[in-house]
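REVIEWER CHECKLIST
Item 1: Sequence provided? yes
Item 2: Single chain? yes
Item 3: Sequence as submitted:
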Amino acid sequence: MKHIAPALVLVICACSRSAANHEELGDRAYAAAAYVDALAEYELGRKTNTSSATLLAKVGAAAIHAEDYELAAEAYRALGKRDRSRAEEAADGLDRVARAALTANDRTALASALTGLREVAPRRPLGRYVVLAALDAVDRGDTAEARALLPVAAAAAVDAARSDSLLFVYGMTLVRVKDCSTAVRVFEGVIRRQRAPSVVEPSREGLGLCALVEGQIALQQGRPGDAEGWFRRATAPGASPDVVRGAFLGLGDVRLAQGDIAGAMESYQQALAGGTAGDTISQRAQEKLNALGKAEPE
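Item 4: Structure as written out by the authors:
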């Protein structure tokens, strides 16, 4: 072991010198406005000195100048997490990244910068950036990012109508991930306030869809009583015809679970109303009627 220790010391020293050399070379390049070269040196330095908060700050600054906004956002986010005493510095960097990314129409970097701002400075206003990033997340199908940004975007909206329009989009995003317990409250708020007429009726449809989903979940979990209440809400005015038919299909299953054969048949018949022979709801309703030995005549 006595012979190995000096070798280890040499290796450690060599690594330290290597990291320092890359950082020094990066500083020289940065001072000469050779930002791409500076960024390359800083990134090499990070590989041998992953714990340096100062180096992360330099990577972020160089990346902004080099127009690598996604890397800049990653660096400042890492800085804010690694050294909480530099959270304000990291937030300032992320704000610069957001502005630059918005100008460059780099939506991925913009979303990353805004996520970082929420992480390191949750009380800092996100301004106009957040609406664009939220809608971009919706367009990209990134439901996790959309769920995080849309409520913030609604709060930052320029007027009440815009706010409720964004909340409607938030509600529909929640429906997609089957978080209907939250979506119901969102839709009910939009309907109650009546501040954005263009999304009031769509919110009624969303509310009906949510009630249908919640009813199906309750039924699957063996709670027919709860399911019945949700299915009845799904048949309320404003729900789409297919949602209403789906709710009657569910009510038929509830009645069947309760041993009410006649009631189940009646609900299945209502599920058939307004459908076509080939649609999914009609097929399922007819199959259930057939299973009860009460198939409708052709």
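Item 5: Key structural point noted by reviewer: Residues 4-31 form the longest helix (28 residues).
Item 6: Recommendation: ____
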